[in-house]
Amino acid sequence: MTAEKKIRFIAVDKSLFFPTLKKRVEQYFSERRKTRYANHTMVLKTIVLLSSYVLPFLVILLVAPGFWISMCLWLVMGAAISGIGMNVMHDANHGAFSKNPTVNKWLGFTICLAGAGVSNWKWQHNVLHHTYTNVANLDEDIKNRGVIKLSPHETVTSFHRFQWIYAFFFYGILTLYWVLVKDFVQYAHFIKSGLNRQTKPKNLQMLASMIIIKLVYFGTFFALPTLVFHIRFDFILTGFLLMHFSAGVILTVIFQLAHSVEGTQYPLPNPEGIIEKDWAVHQMETTVNFSPRNKWLSWYIGGLNFQIEHHLFPKICHIHYPGIAPIVKKTAREFGLNYMEHQTFMMALRSHVAALKKFGIPCFNEGIV
Questions:
Q1: Rounded distance, CA 195 to CA 239, Å?
Q2: 317: left (phi over 0), alpha (psi -120 to 50) or beta
Q3: What is the pTM assigned to this prediction?
Q4: Among candidate residues 338, 301, 337, the one with its CA nearest the CA of residue 322
Q5: What is the 3-state secondary structure (H, E, C) of 274-288?
Q6: Strands annotated E in the chain
Q7: d(CA 105, CA 363)
Q8: Burial grade of 230 (CB within 10 A; 0-12, 13-18, 19 or more)
Q9: In 10 A of CB 116, how many CB atoms?
Q10: Using a CB cutoff of 8 Å and minimum separation of 24, what contacts does 50-56 make?
Q11: Residue 341 forms beta bridges with which residues?
Q12: Alpha-carbon distances, residue 179 vs 27, 108, 123, 286, 296 (angstroms)
């Protein structure tokens, strides 16, 4: 039985919050004659981010600068691939970049620039994370992986008391783990759990494509520089690891600041598999915005600082989130819902560290949500 059949959102008292909000947001776009998809600003951003990833690598190959300049270029690539993931890939795989599904499909494949597969990401993110946000054993973003506990409904040991210190190291190896192991682990897990309902031939095709993507990826980053351009292998390996570590820290921290912070809830379904609240209300209670007035940060992280708006309207391109945020906030307050936000990035980061400390205490009450 799939997660979708096991867990349902059924409110005792049906809320008109989301129907009201949806109508107001639709009115916002119609009155301004705006598309909810990407505009020329988003297209320009896409070009800038893709160029910031490709051009430094070309410089490394063709110019072969010294070690320290090369490391700086690898860092730029790490920041660029994070930006591509949070902006281009993320919007495209939500169907929010363009009204043309083909455009979304091909831009969604930019995830391959990080050596990862797109199908697993959609199941992990679009289905599990967006439907069951902060629900233990379903939301992959707070999944128990032994080393770090991101939910109050997990058994912890004295070792986890220090997770607020060492967590950021493990955040740094996220994308490398994804490239090497995670895709294959999720491939097997999603088939076993029933989330992946594809036929066996389709899944074998998916597995073959994942292997090919990774072979091409590692061939591009290791065989091409060393065998064709005769660049030292240790230079390439160090830069590659630096790129992935920087990308891992950036991506993980940004996503954690929206859900794994103080004040968010971690509801559990009742024995019948029901969470007794509206799905939209659940999103409001498990999601926090941060740095709403920082335009530079918002540009780089793809509007993920407006995470409430994203979770309620994932098919709207992120460039519109600052515009609809006041509507969401006003409507939430009208219905007595808490619109949670941290005014600065550092406030959100401190709150995440505090949450890590809390979840790492062995005697922490697992009943707290």
A1: 36
A2: beta
A3: 0.92
A4: 301
A5: EECCCHHHHHHHHCC
A6: 8-9, 274-275, 289-290, 341-342
A7: 46
A8: exposed
A9: 20
A10: 50/80, 50/84, 50/88, 50/110, 52/76, 52/77, 52/79, 52/80, 52/83, 53/77, 53/80, 53/81, 53/84, 53/113, 56/80
A11: 289
A12: 42, 17, 17, 29, 29
Give, in degrees to the nearest 5, the angle at Cα 236 between 231 and 237: 140
214: tokens are 């990774």
Can you tell me the distance from the alpha carbon of 60 to that of 263, in angstroms, rounded to the nearest whole number?
Answer: 45
Beta-carbon count within 10 A of 161 CB = 13
The single-letter code of the amino acid at 164 is W
C-alpha–C-alpha distance, residues 154 and 151, integer Å: 6
Burial 23-44 (b: 16+ CB within 10 A, else e): eebeebeeeeeeebbbeeebee
pLDDT at 146: 83
Distance CA 285, CA 340 (A): 8
pLDDT reported for residue 364: 54
Across the range 29-34, mean pLDDT stands at 94
CA distance 293 to 295: 6
Give the other-Cβ count within 10 Å of 361's Cβ: 14
Is 367 a residue whose pLDDT tops 50? no
Q: What is the pLDDT of residues 295-350, one digit of tens each?
A: 999 999 999 999 999 999 999 999 999 999 999 999 999 999 999 999 999 999 99
Going from N- to C-terminal start, the domains of the chain cover: 3-15+37-281+348-359
- d(Cα 292, Cα 212) in Å, to the nearest integer? 40
How many CB atoms sit inside 10 A of residue 285's CB?
20
**Judging by beta carbons within 10 Å of its beta carbon (0-12, 13-18, 19+), is residue 132 exposed, middle or buried?**
buried
